[in-house]
Amino acid sequence: MRDVVGLALIFGGLFFVLVSALGLVRFPDFYTRSHALGKSDTLGTILVLGGLAVYGGLTLSSLKLLLILIFVGLGNPTATHALTRAALRSRHEIWSRREGGKKE
Amino acid sequence: MTALLLGVALVIALLTVVPVFRIVAGPTIYDRVLGVGLMGTNAILLLVLVGYIYDRIDMFVDLAVAYAILNFVGVVVVAKYLERRGET
């Protein structure tokens, strides 16, 4: 039973990691790509690590896995936020779909 | 069971190639830092998955903890540097 739940979480997380890699390539601008990294990659990592922790059962390493899970869940969006603020501060222009918008 | 984990690890390993395209083609330096950040996150997942596949869970989970912290600090430090560089 525990394996099934763990595997379901792992494959769910794998889907989000896939989507974030796709988003990193397909999105037209840096600010949209930072969404792909900050949000869906964090969720993918949380789900995969959660699935492995469930699959591993009640051991010390599962506790450490939960530690990584919390750290990535808090740290990854923070890092992406710092990067996006740096881009905004140094006047990195924002792409727009209107006539002026060129695809970067 | 480990075959399924190996499959997941292979898919994530193949996904690590995608940010290399973004790092090479990325128009601005910020895109390149994004690509590096995504590779770091994939590396954490690969470390833990390999740990579970080869039943050396304790060693690889510790590696993953260290690498998660390293990756986070790296992206923030580069962001701080790029922020200050823009003003000069």
Task: Summarize the structure in words.
The complex is a heterodimer of chains A (104) and B (88). Chain A is an all-alpha fold. Chain A has one domain (2-93). Chain A is built from three helices and no strands. Chain A has helices spanning 2-26, 30-56, 60-89. In chain A, α1 (2-26) packs antiparallel against α2 (30-56) and α2 runs antiparallel to α3 (60-89). Chain A starts with a helix and ends in a 15-residue tail after the last helix. Chain B is mainly α and 88 residues long. Chain B has a single domain, classed as Helix Hairpins (Orthogonal Bundle). Chain B is built from four helices and no strands. Chain B has helices spanning 2-15, 17-25, 29-53, 57-87. The longest helix of chain B is centred in the C-terminal third of the chain and has 31 residues, at 57-87. Chain B starts with a helix and ends with a helix. The model of chain B has no long low-confidence stretch (mean pLDDT 88). Classes of the chains: A mainly alpha (104), B mainly alpha (88).
* Radius of gyration from the alpha-carbon trace of chain B, in angstroms: 16 Å
Strand content range of chain B:
under 5%
Q: Describe the global form of chain A.
A: elongated
Quickly count the domains of chain B. 1
